[in-house]
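Exam revision sheet. Question 4 asks you to relate a sequence to its structure. Input first:
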Amino acid sequence: MKASLTVLLEVQKDYTQLLKKLTRQHTLTVAEWQLLQNVVDGQDTQAELVATTQLDVSTLSRQLSRLVEKKMLTIKKLGEKPTTRKKYLYQITSQGQAALDGMNTDFQTMNTELFSQWTEEEQNLLKILLNRLKTSFDRIEN
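Answer key, structure tokens:
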């Protein structure tokens, strides 16, 4: 039997590959999908998105620009005072909402398929064990 962390790494690789495949079908990257979800959830300014995603401002700006180019987000300048920093409000477009809805549906389908043979008890046990593992990692990091 393989070591737990080895299997966890293999599962993470499989999960990443599957997510990339799903997002490509909706002309998104995984990061873009997550950004669209954040905007829909109310984090619609760059400052809020930086705080939520923990991304570097320049990285976030490039990702947002790509979503605007793809016509999945619109951008609106807030505040006209020349002495204030530029603030932008991002809003999802109907095209972006369609991509997000499709991706979320496909993600839920993948989740259902992955756990279709698992009992509710097994799924709950997995959640408990993964949460314990996360807590152990957090203790090591701090």
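Marking note for examiners. The mean pLDDT is 92.
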